[in-house]
Amino acid sequence: MTEISNAKASLGRAIHAITGKWIWFVALGVGELILGGGASVNLMAASLASVLVIGATMVAAGIFQVVHAFSMLALRGFLFWLLAGLVYAIAGAIVLYDPILASFTLSLAVCAFLVAAGVIRIWAGFHMRPAAGWRWIAAAGVLTTCIGAILVAAWPAIGLWLLGAMLVVDLIFQGWGFIAFGFALRSRAARHSAQPATV
Q1: Which residues of 8-45 are buried (b: 16+ CB within 10 A; e: fewer)?
Q2: How far apart are CA 164 and CA 156, in angstroms?
Q3: How many helical (H) and strand (E) elements, i.e. helices and strands, does the chain have?
Q4: With bands split at pLDDT 50, 70 and 90, how would you rate the model's confidence at 4?
Q5: Cα(125)–Cα(130) distance, rounded to whole angstroms?
Q6: Calpha distance 58→48 (Å, rounded)
Q7: Is the separation of the CB atoms in 29 and 81 below 8 Å?
Q8: Cα(80)–Cα(131) distance, integer angstroms
Q9: Structure pTM?
Q10: Assuming Cys at both sites, which of 34, 62, 85, 182 could form a disulfide with 22, CB separation 3.0 to 4.6 Å?
């Protein structure tokens, strides 16, 4: 019981600590909305920018893996880590060299993953029968599969804007989420300060 009380007190202190920072969450949300709006003006440029970020990240991760491999020279697995790092860095370099081809490839991979995720959700929904709500999971799977199939059918025409559209949607939803969270924190702080102090 004491551990539960301590955990609740610790959580309460953490919430109280971020309550005063509500303006930063709102500012972050507004910033993401602005970025999302800017990216929506040119979805192709947003797609290419996201592909370049992915490529640069892959190169950096590959370099780190190669450095890590040399730090394990005396141990088993050196060759594995070295090859994995080289492959990752080379793949990132290819993405940076031809971001348009990478955009087409990644967009097709996203479409295929949507179809696969939808099929898995359908299977999970039917597997959960007769639990309440299994139909919702199966229905969500059917919707995801249909969206993925439509996108696969529309490929390669969507190859240059799909990733940009996903980036825009993500930025806008995240932005509104941070804004709502920030104002909820402000409301909580106002309620807390309005309560009479307890002795």
Answers
A1: eeeeeeeeeeebeebeebbebbeebbebbeebbeebee
A2: 15
A3: 7, 0
A4: low
A5: 10
A6: 15
A7: no
A8: 45
A9: 0.62
A10: 182
